[in-house]
Amino acid sequence: MLGESTTGFSERRIATTERRSAFAVRALILFFVLEYVRPPLLAQLQLQALIIVVMLALWLAARDRPWANILTAQVLFFCICLQGILSSYNNYAAYAISRAMFGHVVIALALSWMLAVRQIFTTVTWAWLMIIGYVAVYGLTHGGKGPGAMLGDENDLALACATAFPFAFYSFERLTGWRRWLSGGIGGLLVLAIVVSFSRGGLVALAAAGVYCWLASRHKVRGLVTGVVALLLLLIAAPEQGRTGQSYGERLSSIFQTDEGTAETRRFLWSAARNMWQANPILGVGAGNFSFVVGRYQPQDFEKPDYLERDWSGTAVHSVYFQVLAEHGSVGIALLGYLLWAHFRAIRRLRRAASRPELPSDLRRDAELYGGALGGAVIGYGAAGAFLSVAYYPYLWYFTAMAVALEAAVQREVTAAGAKRA
Fold it and tell me: Do 267 and 315 fall into the same domain?
């Protein structure tokens, strides 16, 4: 009787865990729909905040939670955002950023836990890719702009599409049947949306992510064909004249004009960011405070009157790296650098672990597919981030947490396969 009772309790506990996991997955996908699609009525209810609280409770209640130094670095970055509430010039700006970062870190923790099962990883990743596919369609029909919030303007839309492109690329390369053609269609929509957005940063991100995907691919010819198709789509869809009044070619060529226009303005603002860092080298001026104090740190070695006579307060720094350097000092930029380094190290480990020929073919395929996609996504984010102030956007936090989850899932299956052979 005792054995039957214990067995029944174990079965009930397993069933409860499975129901909890299913609920958590649905809630996470709903969160992505609310964040990226922004349904008009639902977005106003701010259900995302409720889901974040639920995710934190589920993560705290979970027993088998992977942990890695990547997650430690994320929590530490959130902590240095918090300290800015007390020490920065604009306390409310630091508070608003800290509140947003709290949500990003909680969702990242949930991703690292829930996606540590390969089937769930696949389900959530495909749901996210299709959501971004919808966002691309929205951008194509709304002049290159997204549904709002973190997808409000053209650069935001292009960044989202560029980070999603590696998932479409590797899915097209690795999968077969309807999933290959669906991912290929989504990839084409992502490229078209980036072109219509007229975002130079988005195109740089797409190019960087595409090159990484091709170099990291084990099917170079197939990858090259995919890249050529993407390039043809770009050339065909490129508008003769965009929102800036320039042709697409003129818009892109301005990237290399470093002594005039927006490029010169960026150099001016980056110099101000360095001045901020030199004056506040350890923890910076505080989260979200660059635009409020930039007027105090304007460089004086730019000769044009607009730079010498104008107060540039209220201007964004237009670079994730200078943004973190100025607002979080040496500690912040070290944590950012560590996140990038640890992300690719985790991808290398998991791909190596799954490369053994005796392992199931679907495990080896998924490790290559999603490991490569996560690498390409962060490359795209890093390339666009050189020109955009996106330190507090969720992409880096989500993708690095997904790398933790994928490595845990792969290691779990590799260990199980080894025990079965023994």
Answer: yes
The domain tally of the chain equals 2
Burial 79-100 (b: 16+ CB within 10 A, else e): ebbbbbbeebebeebbbebbeb
Instruction: Transcribe 355-400 into DSSP letters.
Output: T-TTS-HHHHHHHHHHHHHHHHHHHHHHHHHTTS--TTSSHHHHHH
99 and 53, same domain (yes or no): no
Say which residues have a Cβ less than 8 Å from residue 406's Cβ, sequence separation at least 6. 115, 118, 121, 346, 350, 367, 370, 371, 374
- Lowest mean pLDDT segment, chosen from 248-252, 313-317, 415-419: 248-252
- Please indicate, yes or no, if residue 297 is contained in any of the structural domains: yes
Q: Are 58 and 20 in contact (CB under 8 A)?
A: yes
- Section 234-261 average pLDDT: 55
Give the residue from 354, 377, 291 showing the smallest Cα distance to 326: 291
Answer whether residue 152 is part of any domain.
no
Average pLDDT score over residue span 5-14 = 44
pLDDT at 246 over 60: no
Based on the domain organization, do 401 and 315 belong to the same domain?
yes
Its domain, for residue 104, covers 66-114+257-422
- pLDDT, tens digit (0-9, with 9 covering 90-100), for 115-144: 999 999 999 999 999 999 999 999 999 888
Is the domain of 15 the same as that of 35? Answer: yes
pTM attached to this predicted model: 0.89
